[in-house]
Amino acid sequence: MSDDNSEITGSDDVDGTSGFSTDFEDADLGDEESNQGLFDDLLSGEPIFENKEVLRPSYTPHELPHRSDQINKMATILVAALRGETPSNILIYGKTGTGKTASAKFVSKELESTSQKYSVPCDVEYINCEVTDTQYRVLAQLANKFIEKNKGRIDDRIDELESLRDATEEYDATADDDAHAGDDPTDRTAEETASDPFDFVSSEETESRSAVSSGTESSAESGDSPAETRGSSDPASPPVTGTEPGDADGPGRDGETAIDATPQEPAHPLESTPFGTRAEVDDRIAELEEDKESFEEVPMTGWPTDRVYSVFFDAVDYDERVVVIMLDEIDKLVEKSGDDTLYNLSRMNSELENSRVSIIGISNDLKFTDFLDPRVKSSLGEEEIVFPPYDANQLRDILKHRSEVAFKGNALSDDVIPLCAAFAAQEHGDARRALDLLRTAGELAERSQAETIVEEHVRQAQDKIELDRVVEVVRTLPTQSKLVLFAIILLEKNGVHSINTGEVFNIYKRLCEEIDADVLTQRRVTDLISELDMLGIVNAVVVSKGRYGRTKEISLSVPLEETEAVLVSDSRLSDIDDIQPFVQARFEN
Ligand SMILES: Nc1ncnc2c1ncn2[C@@H]1O[C@H](COP(=O)(O)OP(=O)(O)OP(=O)(O)O)[C@@H](O)[C@H]1O
């Protein structure tokens, strides 16, 4: 057995790059000799980053400079939820990277934590409609989230009720014992309390016993019966269960327990609860178990939408609470599947009995409400908050805040942040782009083992990000557009300048034949060239040829080799072999 272990240990050694060694001696030797320092050099350079994660889009910052107006406005509207009222619906607009999602998430986090602090039930649910883009999926996702929350709450309640039942059982058993024993309960109480003052159960037992003494013996004198004692208290005040305060079946337990449970008159566990007997507690537990069983999760496809809606509706209305539903990229939902979801969500409040729903819609597209039913439009846009683009100075502040945590002390030269901010400000004031630039510049500096990030790294980062964008756009083009682009690339590669549509079409046709693709008409190919122009991949300008009319002159606006490499990585286009002679043959014709 120990041999086996030594083998495993030896082979698991991270330094053992020469392969598996079977005993410790080999492994030790391997440490020295087989390690060729692949990672050592990289590790030895002073790392530029202190914490790179804070520059990633997934990181939610604790501070959002230049967004306090928008954040305060959101908070002013949503505070209604903490008062148990329904907040107005909110529409948030702004271009990409202007901090809409980050601000909305920040506010909702605050809202949820404050609601917990003051025990006001309020739930916020976030949905990204770019991913969840049909009514079915939105409702199903919401239904399942609320079912999960409901189950969690039911479990908590059951736990509390079980503790209450146990405490009652114990209390009753003790009451019986004492009634038969005829001891002096007061003496025993004192002894037990002294023996372990911090033991909750024993002290509760103690209290129970003294309660028995006062409830049975002394009450005979005072005329109080235990039932009367119980009944006399406020039904809304808390049970003495020893469990954490929660939302069992009546709020506001804490202080009152302390006041009620005087040493002389310790409370019966069911006092101040809506339950008269242990059996009633058991019935309530059974009822909750049944509720829990009755929730049926919605499958991700297959049900009629009205069934999904009704499950969602019941799940939301199961509890008294305010629900805030945050629909990010809401325009994508409307674009893909119309405004039915928003219509259904916005009319829910008139039918809900226990809960209230409020919607926050977030969109990049200022015009999407033009496509909404007027009723949905007015209900959704009760409040509108605009997120303007950041200017270069604001981006500078944002980057400064983040860079303090992200980088080592002297890793940034002075001109880096202003340059990143300036580049991103040109791109419609996009904070995401600014952060990407800064992170990529840092990575490039780290890769070249530089000690500081300088202006040149930022410029390289700008080129790299641009190229990454191009690669992504080209990679996801439909095959026909790829063929048109390939034709343009082949022409450029062969030194053809001022390429016209006819030339592109001829090469395109040959490429289609080569890979057995349908050949589109020249008019359609012209449209595809215009689309490539709009994506910034080619530049197509209309030039007048005098009496020969007008024609389009096309040139590539992206790096040729990298773009070609992306195209041939497509399995269909990679079938085109020996491209060079093929194009030349075309020109010799
Ligand atoms: N004021 C700010 N302070 C710090 N970071 C910010 C600020 N505004 C935006 N960011 C950061 O910029 C990035 C983009 O922000 P966010 O996702 O909130 O933009 P958005 O407006 O929702 O964009 P999109 O519409 O593309 O989703 C995130 O990493 C975010 O943390």
TrEMBL record:
Q: Which Gene3D superfamilies match?
A: 1.10.8.60, P-loop containing nucleotide triphosphate hydrolases (3.40.50.300), Winged helix-like DNA-binding domain superfamily/Winged helix DNA-binding domain (1.10.10.10)
- Annotated region Disordered: the residues are 1-38, 170-278
- As given in the record, the signal peptide range reads none
Positions bound to ATP: 98-102, 390, 402
One annotated GO molecular function is:
ATP binding
Q: Which domain of life is it from?
A: Archaea
Function, as annotated, reads: Involved in regulation of DNA replication.
Family in the record: Belongs to the CDC6/cdc18 family.
- What is the designated name of this protein? ORC1-type DNA replication protein
- Organism, scientific name: Natrinema longum
